[in-house]
Amino acid sequence: MRNISELRLDIVSGDWVVIATGRGKRPHDFGKKRGDHWWKRQKKSCPFEKLLPEALYVSLKNGDIHKPTHKNVSFLKRDWFLQIVPNKFPAFGRGVCAVRRRAGPYFWEEGVGFHDVVVTRSHEQSLALMSKDEVEMVIRAYRDRYIQLKDDDCVEYVSIFHNHGPEAGASIAHPHSQIISIPVIPPDVGRSIKGSADFFRKHKKCVHCLMIEHELEDGIRVIYEDEKFIAFVPYASRTAFEVRIFPKEHLPTFGSIHNSEITYLARAVKTVLGKLYKGLNNPSYNFFIHTSPVVHTATFQHYHWHLEILPKTAIWAGFELSTGIDISTIAPEKAAAFLRKQ
Ligand SMILES: [Zn+2]
Ligand SMILES: [Zn+2]
Question: 36 C-alpha to center of ligand 2: Å?
Fold first, then answer.
């Protein structure tokens, strides 16, 4: 069987790109524009209104977690709150892992991995509008699936992300997150890992722990804080109103989070998304978790996992694309003051 996608290496930058042809788009499909009406029309034909037969993991409204079987499926259908299903159009799938192949001067690998979708039941209720307990179930599903995926032989990184709104690239209006496991360390994560390792060697301290300490002391960019987590607008924000949420304890991997800590994280996430919802009138946004890679031959003790929320307030245009430099049009300190008030 032909692989779903290829990872191709840019031999100049050393960055990976994915050529995913699984959706079978024809060239002229790329020219089609999708208007607002397309986004609104979707509820009728929404694929996520039911518990799907291929669900791998189901969380009920009362928080109980089940693996669907033919015996329990009828009450799961009635009481489900969240399901994890394999993506119908995966960017990564089966294949041979860890074999780097040549194509002239270039290199590629098969796009081996898993591509799952985490779906919550209501079509209208986005994360910002969920109860704290519901957000907690979503984060618990991320953690549980992360733990299952990290031990697969081919996996080097597990990416967990959520796209909200058409400007953030969500192709289905129904609230859903995605979990993709991939056979390489992604460039952005690789740079963060290297940066934090270099800092650690030089200063004998985690760069993220240092930032957390400074932000707590300074307070000017902090928008949320409790015993376990802190949320602040980064000093060097990439977009207007970017927010990062960090565990205060130095932990390299998201997979090690306990249920008791998930309760705190859910409150932090709900609070921050609620502030963005209120202050920016339900903006489109992307959020993702940055965590240490799961390469079994290396450890990443200097890394500090966190969650980044990037409201879609601008699009990457010529300057950003040509330089890799983001432009944020509000001072992070001002953005934080605004969000604190919401
Ligand atoms: Zn729906
Ligand atoms: Zn740290």
Answer: 43
